[in-house]
């Protein structure tokens, strides 16, 4: 190619390049003009979120120059975005979609404004980019705020229902018109079945026929409709004029909610015929009273309810339908309504057409449209059934369901009423407690126990007849309240009659049981002028009667009060005994009867108090059982005995185990196995170093908890024995079924051997039971050599008692065992 041709080609190429450059510049200018002409902020964003370009509307909206934004991350415009905010955007754009989201952007001064951002993806010369258009929603939000404010202040009621029919919003006017209490739950107030709804002809309408549901179903506005709403809870009828408008979400073809606007038109619905039809359906009678003419207009339902033949009657005729005591209350309410404009609602007793008692709820208020205030309107409602149900519940609340006697609360109320009335204050209280009931209840079970209680109640009723009030005061405790104003000897006479009524045996499950009663008597005002004081003193007298001899009665006296005071003093000090370190343990050796060798120890509790002195265990243990303090004391005994066993073992003393008595109350009141496990673990002892001695009463508790506790103790390796076997409610079935290791022969039976044939027979029987069941046997109360020799011949190998040693201090016990070791070493 010649030079000239080459130059020509270059000139053409240069011209083409200049033309293309000019065209590109023209396109860029056109893009920039269009880009900046968009009224909403538009951003060009790199795929990684870096802002590549921003139009003028964006710079104005964010109050920032381009150089403060270009090249920065989108977080500069929206610092509240989450760290992974681009992930959902990429996911939508990769599918060719447009990502729309509402976020809050930030201006240069830190202020925020809401925007709706539409994002789309595009390629710029092979580079993936995002174009984002942000529409400022501030004006829309302001409009929504103004809309909500309007909803709040408008005097029309407004309800919004969702597509599922549930009410999601009620403005203050709606709550006022429907008389909803402040803070009421919309779900509860508009729950299904809360309202009966009637049309203008008195026809009851189902929910689906209401304007709001019809608008949801059809998608069309339901124009103004007048309906009556009867609230079944408040018993109020309100007439409303309702317009319902369906509302659609953008792009939806079905309404997502419906707005209902309504007004209270009850005042315009005083048409008597319409009221009659609707209120008949709701079993509500309407009335209107003109105070000037003294005439009362009654609807059909009101006439039927009161048994009146005419629709118009005088106020006197209406009041004649009420009990005489109620007429004054009703008249006073009418006068207050006329004079002060006060509405009223009251329940009054009336007399029905059949002569039976009728309960009526009357609501009345001044006629709103009457400027003179002399016209009252209201409703009648027959609430007889409701009142009868309330009375039934009241009686049930005052009645013991097993015996149908008064219950504890009811008799306390009656006694309080009598003591508060000087003309009836001379009364006596008989406190009755059944003897031996717990034995029957434990042996035969609670069902048989209930039969005994019911039978005992009938016997007391026959004995007392109409001379006193009778109540079941507790489990097997009864109370009789009788007057002494006309017969001072009545309490003793009734007590004797009650005791006589228990003379015959009770037959339960084919067996006969002798159950007697112990009775305490206290009189007002000598022994107390308050119910609790009087009952407490009768209780004190009852316990004294039970202590002296069961099947008797005892009058309260100041001496008994002193005893009660001493008992309270004892219980008070006993409750503090553990904390005050007043308790200690002594240890009685358990020995081999043939050799006298000590092999174990039984822990025995002692208590010395600075005020009360040395207290015998048989005196304070019973009180601790009664008050429940035995649980805490028993826990201390377990821990202390285990710690002492640890100290003896550390000293090298060959003591096999230590025995601890466990109270029945401990067994019931706590997780005994857990307490034992903690005591053993704290002392570092194996389970077989501890023997727990239970009374026979624990045996008869056939509850799952009892069996599981025995099993748990057995798993620990603890030895289990029954103390004083044969004194209580022994049953061989329990010994066979429960994991018992041994029995302790009671010193009560050993005291008469070898001369008392009955005691000898019992000892032989117990020894035989132990041997046949493979149980160990330890004899208690061995006091002389004759008893020891008898036991050895009987095959009993182990025992304890004063023949060997009383309770010893830990040091004395250790010295005794040490001497034994020394003696055996020299033998």
UniProtKB/TrEMBL annotation:
Residues folding into a coiled coil are: 3-30
Top-level taxon: Bacteria
Q: Where is the EAL domain?
A: 567-821
Domain PAS as annotated: residue spans: 27-80, 143-178
Offer one Pfam family short name for this entry: EAL
* Keyword terms: Coiled coil
Name of the molecule in the record: EAL domain-containing protein
What high-level taxonomic lineage is stated for the organism?
Bacteria, Pseudomonadati, Pseudomonadota, Gammaproteobacteria, Lysobacterales
